[in-house]
Amino acid sequence: MNSSVEIQCTACGQESLLKRVPRYDGFKKTGESLVCASCGHEFAGEPDVPFKEKRGPRVFDDSDRPKSAHVFDAHEADRLCRHCKHYVVNPFCQRCGLRSRLVEATDSCDRFEKRQG
Predict the structure, then answer these.
(1) Of 1, 34, 54, 115, which is least surrounded by CB within 10 A?
(2) pTM value > 0.85
(3) Taking the alpha carbons of 9, 13, 17, 22 in that order, is the dihedral positive or negative?
(4) Structural domain count of the chain
(5) Which tens digits make up the pLDDT trace of 29-75?
(6) For the CA atoms of the chain, what is the radius of gyration?
(7) Residue of 42, 41, 50 whose CA lies nearest to 32
(8) pLDDT given at position 109
(9) Whole-angstrom distance, CA of residue 67 vs CA of residue 48
(10) For the chain, counts of helices (H) and of strands (E)
(11) What is the pLDDT of residue 2?
(12) Which helix (H) or strand (E) element contains residue 94?
């Protein structure tokens, strides 16, 4: 089922909206009719409805996309606290087990020792 409601009606030639009118047999719903809101033309089924293409205005193109940011050099991120064997994480803070200080994952120090695994 197409969620679009904008159509280009083939009967009246106008841009219009699609109305979904329920059909009933007594109090029981048996289906729905697909009708042009402008002229009342009934379409046979969903494949016969000429839905409009969803296109927004093209303001930007691929050349306007930003280049990917490189925050660290090739091996600069290898010596961050989060890779150190003394880095301790708990739900409330991050701590250096060697110096007993609060640290951030992106901090670094001269006493770095690589964590195994």
Answers:
(1) 1
(2) no
(3) negative
(4) 2
(5) 999 999 999 999 999 999 999 998 877 777 888 888 888 887 777 77
(6) 31
(7) 42
(8) 86
(9) 44
(10) 0, 7
(11) 64
(12) strand 94-96
